[in-house]
Amino acid sequence: MMVDLSAFSDEKFDPKNWINGAVQQRHPQDPVEKHLVDLEMKLQMVSEEIAVSLDEQSSSALLRVPRASRDVLRLRDDALSLRNSVANILLFLKKAEGSSAESIATLAKVDTVKRRMEAAYETLQDAAGLTQLSSTVEDVFSSGDLPRAAETLANMRHCLTAVGEVAEFANIRKQLEVLEDRLDSMVQPRLTDALNNRKVNVAQEMRGILIRIGRVKSLESYYTKIHLKPIKKLWEDFDLKQQSNKLANEKNEVGRVSSSIDSQSNVSVISFSYWLPSFYDELLLYLEQEWKWCILAFPDDYKTLVPKLLNETMSTISASFVSRVNLATGDVVPETKSLAKGILDILSGDLPKGVKLQTKHLEALIELHNITGSFARNIQHLFSDSDLNVLLDALKAIYLPYETFKQRYGQMERLVLSGGVAGLDLRGVSTRIIGVQGVELSETVRRMEESIPHVILLLEAAMERCINFTGGSEADELILALDDVTLQYISTLQGILKSLRAVCGVDIAVDNVGAKKETGSDRKESASHGRKVDFTSNEEEWSFVQGALQILVVADCLTSRTSVFEASLRSTLARLSTNLSISVYGSSLDQNQTHLDDKGSSGDLSVAGKAALDVAALRLVDVPEKARKLFNLLEQSKDPRFHALPLASQRVSAFAEAVNELVYDVLIVKVRQQFNELSHLPIWSSIEEQTAYRLPSFSAYPQSYVTNVGEYLLTLPQQLEPLAEGISSSDANAEEAQFFATEWMFKVAEGATALYIEQLRGIQKITDRGAQQLSVDIEYLSNVLSALSMPIPPVLATFSTCFSTPTDQLKDLIKSDSGHQLDLPTANLVCKMRGVRLD
């Protein structure tokens, strides 16, 4: 049995636990006493061994103590000796420092004098050499050795720089400028010939001469001037073809008159959109060939020479390009094609009023822009080895002709969308034929409902056009246009809604029914458009109500569609925020990068920046103020509370409220008509006739005014069912639709009850006979309300109770109302009507 001594060194050692553990490790057949005896013996032996070992090590340690003490004393003596040596060395260094400082200062002065003397010597040599070069430079030029002449002029420039502004050499400085211009002009024909005939060696030699005399710009100028001519010829080829086609057509017209030539012999005029891709293809091929040749001829300059040529080309043809794009956009619409005008002419307002900007104009412009975008991507690939700034300048030059249109994009979309909204035919058929009064209402409502998805499609198409044409850089201007046009559309709907009030007859004043009174302009409109609704049949009546109920579907459709469009617009703006942030940040960051070596981080950023270049980034990099404004808008769009169309959203809510008000007025108009002049009916003040027989003094049946209202209210749920089904099928929420219909049912019933109570309060005096008849009427209406699951208002219940009670018992009834089941003000009013005094 082995004894583990590590457990005894643990701070948390517990003897009991250790013994119990040792006992558990014994063999099951061994007695516990024997196991414990063996364990005790082993522990004793181990302890004796430890004691012996401790004695031996203690004795050895005591023997080593004197030796260690002697070593410590010796080390202390050595340290003292070393300290003294170091102090002596420091003292020596301080003395040496004082003397050496004076020597170094003297040497510095000597070195300064020496360098000044050397500079003066070199300046004198340059001055002497400058005079000599000035006297021999004409001979060098006369020899025709251009490299030697370039070297001579370079040396003269160096000498003038060394001499500085000395009056004696002013003439030589002027002479040098004249000679450099002279050499530049001598290089031009040779360089032109080398470029035209692809002479690589000669071109390189001429380049070296120009660089030697500091005329690098002359190389770019000559190169661009030579190659710009054939490219301009490619561009002007379009006008030549157009002229030739016109001449051919004129000849055909003359020939047709003289010899009746078939009309198929006409030569069609080529369109700019059809011709532009071929121009870009030829230009791209030309630039690719120049790129390859310049790699051999100008390996240090090809990355800037060819892009410079493209920039100059686009700058030269920019005005003509804008004019052709403008005319090409006008060719797609007959009205503008006949006038030879385009988008810019429409925006300027120079065209007749009947000529409007159409979607086709913008689609033609975007098509041309897409063609240019394909060319720009090819150029980006071709110039991928160039510096990012050079590539940016080239791409900006390519898109430059479209900048005029992009700056006015918001105005263009506003005109297009306004024209689309104004072109909607929302007015229904106008009819005044008796028996079909609801036709105008239902047709108008149908057109209003059908116009909503059409307008939403117009707005969505505008957002898509903005991204396709401007890359989203004009999103802020587009949103303003969308908001304005949506306001225009909703204002049109509200105007139609106002006219429908006259069509429905709800703006006609109804005396003493709480209806709206006509004043001012409303009275004029009612005189011309309003009419009193006079239904000839129940079928016509309910068809009219159904037409009004459909307006609720219009409001619901407008609210939901605009809400969905706003959510989609916010999503689009959030996506633009991410894309534009990456593009603009990558491009602008890389422009400010210090050029490091190919293995540095600048190369990685350059690749990222070039990959992120797009049409929006190209515009926003140079206009930080516009970029800041746009990014603020895009950042706000990430907030769920953000309204992309703030004014339109408020107007939609106002339109929905106006619709609810109109529908309610239409649904309640029959009730108003039936309750009109109710408080002045002669039956309330009629006196009981004296007869020889005991007959009831009132009718046992309710009067027609209340039965008509009751039948109307009981039939109304059936009329609301189609509305509920329409909402359910569109929103997939049958419970909500049913709740919607029930809510309107209760609203009309509550309104009818309120109108009835208002008329009852207007009764000045009522006889017993009138009171009994009125109690029957009230009871009938109460039964109708109960059938509709409507609670009976306490005021109406009080009227019913008080009118059904005989006059002589009315006072006791009111005083015995201990449970306060009666409405006391109403009960007091009934007592006043029936001439009962409570005091």
Question: Total number of β-strand segments?
Answer: 0
Q: Decide which structural class fits the backbone.
A: mainly alpha
Question: How would the global form be characterised?
Answer: flat
Uncertain runs: 257-267, 429-436, 509-536, 589-609
Q: DSSP strand (E) fraction?
A: under 5%
Please report the number of helical segments.
28
The succession of helices and strands, N to C, reads HHHHHHHHHHHHHHHHHHHHHHHHHHHH
Number of domains: 4
The multimeric state of the shown protein is: single chain
Radius of gyration: 52 Å
| Main beta sheet strand tally, sense and closure | none
Estimate the mean pLDDT confidence. 79
Give the helix level as a range of percent. over 70%
Cα separation of the termini: 119 Å
Main location: Golgi
GO biological process, one term: protein transport
Family: Belongs to the COG7 family.
Pfam families: COG7 (PF10191)
